[in-house]
């Protein structure tokens, strides 16, 4: 990131009052909380964790989200993208970690996470040097798929969260979800200042209040949670290192790096910043260290959350100050399980209504990035059409690759990865001249200036 861009972000941060920044930070926390919490819930349930173990797992995961976020917020000599990012447990790690945990045990599972973190740290320099592989046609297509491929998750939550349940799509769920959406849209469209910035938070509170009036709120999780705990390394198991599990998680870590690259560029576009190779290297290193810490503290790998790009876009506040508050709240909630359990009372349909708006905003941000692309060039049209089509198709029907080997399925059943690989390969085929190594497509940092103008 250029020095002037860093100074601009710092100046913007000073213009946001502490009270407003705290509220915006809480909004960021609520926006990512459910998306992150689903990872420990799914993995803990599959590995038959007890109620006590599950409570600890969720709390320490939230605590580590705060640590991982802080690693990215501040630029040091070796780490930190220095953009308003929030980190959480990557959803794509769920299936491989469950498989490793069930077949080889918790110790090997956590060893594979540490191994993947070391891998990310070591390849960060090499990975950052391929930034010319991510011009607007690539990053725009990727962000579009990231956003719109997550919209079905929002609709699933809107209907109650469990598609197989007889109550799925219950009218009261739809009412609560759509009321949440309408409130967010009304405040974002007609409110101004602080109220407009807090549109998502107001929508979540309104939807939860309506659900409470309809008898859908349970405080059991709050009543049974403990008041305080201290994070401890190796709480569940001391890591063991096994080569096949580490290779599996290395493959998965490449997918999170690709996704993070797209989010980095999207945030740079929103904030008007330019990303250098060193910025990307520091960003990847921070995620590598976060994964290593995740293995040590028996949690998960952490990556940049795309959900919060939509929050940033809707609030209009582009500084890092609210994210510092969000990180602090995550640390506090991670130390206070009973307080953290309060966030679990938000009904699934309420989260679904908010997710549809946020994920939609992420998708539109990708379209906005594609505005810098010359679609009169038929090659650009093909790159976007095929990449977005493949990404969305795999998202809807990942079963198409069910007969392939397990390692291949890890890659090919992820729509985001398919879209990114397709966009990178096709763009290289069409726009890179092997003889003189000239690139016809502009790199994203240059395109950002055109968008701003």
Largest sheet: 2 strands, antiparallel
Low-pLDDT segments, ≥5 res = 4-13, 433-453
The largest beta-sheet arranges its strands as 1-2
Broad structural category = mainly alpha
Overall radius of gyration: 21 Å
> What global shape is seen?
globular
Instruction: List SSEs in N-to-C order.
Output: HHHEHHHHHHHHHEHHHHHHHH
Q: What's the total count of β strands? A: 2
Number of helices: 20
Distance N to C terminus = 19 Å
How much helix, percentage-wise, in residues? Answer: over 70%
Estimate what percentage of residues fall within beta strands: under 5%
Mean pLDDT rating? 81
What would you say about this model in short?
The protein is 70% helix and 1% strand.
Q: Can you describe this structure?
A:
This protein is mainly alpha-helical and 453 residues long. The protein is 70% helix and 1% strand. It is built from 20 helices and 2 strands. The protein has helices spanning 3-15, 18-46, 51-73, 94-104, 106-128, 136-158, 171-190, 193-197, 199-213, 220-224, 243-271, 277-296, 307-315, 321-335, 337-340, 348-370, 378-396, 406-412, 415-431, 444-452, and strands at residues 87-89, 302-304. It has a two-stranded antiparallel sheet with strand order 1-2.
């Amino acid at each position: 990131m250029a020095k002037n861009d860093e100074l601009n972000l710092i100046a913007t941060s000073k213009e946001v009052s502490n009270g407003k920044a705290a509220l915006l930070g809480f909004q960021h926390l609520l926006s990512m909380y459910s998306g992150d919490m689903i990872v420990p819930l799914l993995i803990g349930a599959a590995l038959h964790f007890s109620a006590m173990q599950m409570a600890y797992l969720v709390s320490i995961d939230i605590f580590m989200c705060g640590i991982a976020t802080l690693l990215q917020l501040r630029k040091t000599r070796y780490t930190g993208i220095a953009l308003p990012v929030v980190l959480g447990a990557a959803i794509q790690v769920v299936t491989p970690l469950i498989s490793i945990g069930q077949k080889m045990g918790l110790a090997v599972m956590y060893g594979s996470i540490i191994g993947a973190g070391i891998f990310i740290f070591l390849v960060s320099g090499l990975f950052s040097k391929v930034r010319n592989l991510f011009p607007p046609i690539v990053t725009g297509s990727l962000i579009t798929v990231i956003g719109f491929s997550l919209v079905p998750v929002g609709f699933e939550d809107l209907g109650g969260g469990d598609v197989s349940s007889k109550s799925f799509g219950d009218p009261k769920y739809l009412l609560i979800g759509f009321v949440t959406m309408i409130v967010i849209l009304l405040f974002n469209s007609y409110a101004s200042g602080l109220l407009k910035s807090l549109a998502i938070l107001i929508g979540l509170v309104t939807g939860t209040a309506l659900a409470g009036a309809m008898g859908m709120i349970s405080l059991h999780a709050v009543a049974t949670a403990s008041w305080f705990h201290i994070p401890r390394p190796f709480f569940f198991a001391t890591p063991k290192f096994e080569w096949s599990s580490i290779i599996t998680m290395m493959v998965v870590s490449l997918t999170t790096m690709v996704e993070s690259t797209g989010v980095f560029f999207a945030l740079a576009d929103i904030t008007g910043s330019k990303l250098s190779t060193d910025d990307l290297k520091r960003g990847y290193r921070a995620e590598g260290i976060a994964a290593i810490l995740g293995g040590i503290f028996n949690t998960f790998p952490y990556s940049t959350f795309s959900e919060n790009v939509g929050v940033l876009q809707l609030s209009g506040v582009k500084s890092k100050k609210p994210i510092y508050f969000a990180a602090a709240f995550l640390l506090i909630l991670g130390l206070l399980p009973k307080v953290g359990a309060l966030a679990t009372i938000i009904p699934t349909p309420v989260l679904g209504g908010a997710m549809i708006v946020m994920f939609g905003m992420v998708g539109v941000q990708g379209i906005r990035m594609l505005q810098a692309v010359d679609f009169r060039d038929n090659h650009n049209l093909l790159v976007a059409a095929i990449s977005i089509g493949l990404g969305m198709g795999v998202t809807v029907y990942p079963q198409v690759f069910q007969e392939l080997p397990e390692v291949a399925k890890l890659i090919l059943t992820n729509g985001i990865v398919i879209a990114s690989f397709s966009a990178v390969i096709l763009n290289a085929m069409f726009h890179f001249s092997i003889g003189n190594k000239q690139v016809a497509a502009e790199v994203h940092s240059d395109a950002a200036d055109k968008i701003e103008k």
